[in-house]
Every structure is written in C-alpha cells, then in structure tokens.
Amino acid sequence: MLVYKFPTLFSIPNKNNLNKMKHPDILYKYWILKHKFKKKISNSLPTFGINPNLKLNYIDYNKMFRKRKDYKETLIQSFDYLKKLDVVPWLDLDMIWNEHMKRKKDYGVALQVLLGLAANLNVYYAE
Description:
Blueprint: H1 2-5, H2 25-44, H3 61-67, H4 69-85, H5 93-101, H6 108-126
Helix pairs in contact: 3-4, 4-6
C-alpha cells in the first residue's frame, strides 16, 4: 500500500534495491547478475579492488576490519570481552578472526553482529 501511495519515496536508491532507481524487472535482474559476478571476482582476486558490496550500509566493513587499525583494535577488544563473559562458547572466535583476515571465508556480517553484541553487553553490564 505504501509503495502505491508514495511511489516517488520508494523509488529512491537504497541498499535493498542495490542503490538503483526502480526499473523494469529485466534491468534489475541484470544488475543483480552483474553484482554477483563482481562479488565472485572480488572474492577470488581481492587485489583488483572491485567493491561489489552494495548492501553494506555504504561502508565496506570487510575491508575496514582487514585494513584499518582502529577497526581491528575494536574487534579484538570485543572478542576479548565476549571470551571473558563466555557468552558464545560454541563459537571459535579465533578461527573466525583468522579465516576472515586471511580471506579464507567471509565473516563480515558475523563480525558486525559480534561487535554489536559485545557493545550491548558492555552497556548492559556497565549499568
């Protein structure tokens, strides 16, 4: 109902429509295939600098977690805090960290969730 009531508002590019304006289905499907192709190349050959991560709130957290010192330090502190509280004993945080940093697997979304969990627990236990 909202799409029909406010078509202009819902045609604004955002991460759910791959930052594209609303277009016919065939063109949108082309963009999706193009995005998947770029993602495969990026995962296989990361040194090319292709950034297909259109759905990451406009920040490539995978790149930030691997490259920027402040992001790494924040993750390390969060992981240490989660280990201290023993909140996620079923997860091997060191394995997740190592495989993500060595580009063996993509744990970017999991790192964001774990970072958020640590931040929320820190606020909760600080009160």
